[in-house]
Amino acid sequence: MQIQRYRSRVSGPLIERIDIQIEVPGLRYQELASKDSGESSNVIRERVNQARKIQLQRFDKSKIHANAQMGAKEIKRYCAVKEDADR
Q1: In whole angstroms, what is the distance from residue 41 CA to residue 7 CA?
Q2: What is the pLDDT of residue 45?
Q3: Which residues, 6 or more positions from 21, have their beta carbon under 8 angstroms from its beta carbon?
């Protein structure tokens, strides 16, 4: 009960100040202790380099160098939601 009271006292004021919240489910021990290494760094690096190349081509004739620099006009142009996704 003490832990629950403490969390409700602290969490409420902190959570109210956070705009985006994502709940992440807990992992079982077996998942954490797994020896499976997943993707190699080289595979991930290649995927990131390919995405960066596409991004540089997209903004080739503009002053923008990264997605984070896009304004409303560029977001409407490059990030338009397809009709089937909009539904």
Answers
A1: 38
A2: 96
A3: 15
Residues 23 and 9: their CA atoms lie apart, in Å, by 19
Cα separation values, 33 from 36, 39, 44, 46, Å: 9, 16, 22, 27
**Domain presence at residue 21:** no
- Digit-coded pLDDT (tens) for 13-65: 666 676 777 888 998 998 888 888 788 999 999 999 999 999 999 888 888 88
* Residue 11 is assigned to a structural domain of this protein: no
Residue 76 counted as domain residue? yes
Please tell me the total count of domains within the chain.
Answer: 1
Decide if 24 is inside a domain. no
Contact assessment for residue 70 and residue 78, using Cβ atoms and an 8 Å cutoff: yes
Structural domain boundaries enclosing 72:
40-87
